[in-house]
Amino acid sequence: MGGGWSQLGISTPVVQLSTRNIQALNMLFSSWALVFLSFGIMVDDWVTLNFGTKTNMQSHSPWIHTTIWPKDDLKVIRIMMILVISFSFFHNLFLGLEFTFMIPQTKCIFLITVFLSFFTGILLLCALLLYHLKLRQGQSVYYSGYKITWIISTAYLSVFFLFASGILCLLQYKQSMNSAKESHDTQQSGSSIEVISLQKLTVMPHSIVHQQWGPKCSTDGKRKGTEDVLDSRGLRCWAMALLLGSVRTSSDLQPQRLDFFHSESS
């Protein structure tokens, strides 16, 4: 679906979100989850327990130790809530260090943040459901009824923020992997272009030599051939001149010889 929209030139909201925007939104969600959990520690009025009369009512919270449950059945819930706020604190700390570039954005860091967000959200949800179960079990044994206040709503809102933070961590990891792949492809294409350009640079001088020196060499060859032809013609002319000179000298000498013979005979 996203590829079809991108091919049509329409950017989806997921594509429009940059990595920094995802990190900022993730920090906001994790911070609100930690704030709500801390607020739940300070406020003891999670539920109102009714012991039969309107005046005999007591506030209760899973964070405090109470004698309503003799066997202290809420100890497991308190341990789970302590783990939840501890993991939420470390999750927010990792996100803050990652946002400020104090730690590298590696695969291990992404996996740690994803694990902390989802595990903390699941642990908080299990603690809240177990608390509801203990309240229902003690309704007919230790008190006549209970009333849930708005503080538990903030705890469930913290569960939502933690799951949303985990989803944003996954989205951030996906975008980082895509950007790393694109940068790797860009480097490969750049290296291939560089190799091709180097090959062209190594091939071009030969062609330039052929183009520049080829006609010159051919002209020099023609010129050399012309000089050879001229030299051969000159030799021929010189030979002809010598031949004619010898003929002339012989013709000039023959009358002189005849005159010499005539004089001797006379």
Keywords for this entry:
266 residues; mainly alpha; Butyryl-CoA Dehydrogenase, subunit A, domain 3; three-stranded antiparallel β-sheet; rod-shaped; disordered N terminus; disordered C terminus
Q: Could you explain how this protein is built, in words?
A:
With 266 residues, this protein is mainly alpha-helical. It has a domain at 18-179: Butyryl-CoA Dehydrogenase, subunit A, domain 3. 78% of the residues lie in helices and 5% in strands. It has six helices and three strands. Strands 2-1-3 form a three-stranded antiparallel beta sheet, with no helix packed on it. The longest helix has 115 residues, at 151-265.
Topology readout:
Blueprint: H1 2-7, H2 13-16, H3 19-42, E1 47-50, E2 57-60, H4 75-99, H5 107-139, E3 145-148, H6 151-265
Antiparallel strand pairs: 1-2, 1-3
Please outline what is shown here.
The chain has helices spanning 2-7, 13-16, 19-42, 75-99, 107-139, 151-265; strands at 47-50, 57-60, 145-148. It is mainly alpha-helical and 266 residues long. Mean pLDDT is 74; it is low at 1-16, 207-219 and 260-266.
Parts with pLDDT < 50 across at least 5 consecutive residues:
1-16, 207-219, 260-266
The neighbouring-strand order within the major sheet is 2-1-3
Class of secondary structure makeup:
mainly alpha
Gyration radius, rounded? 52 Å
- How big a fraction of the residues is strand? under 5%
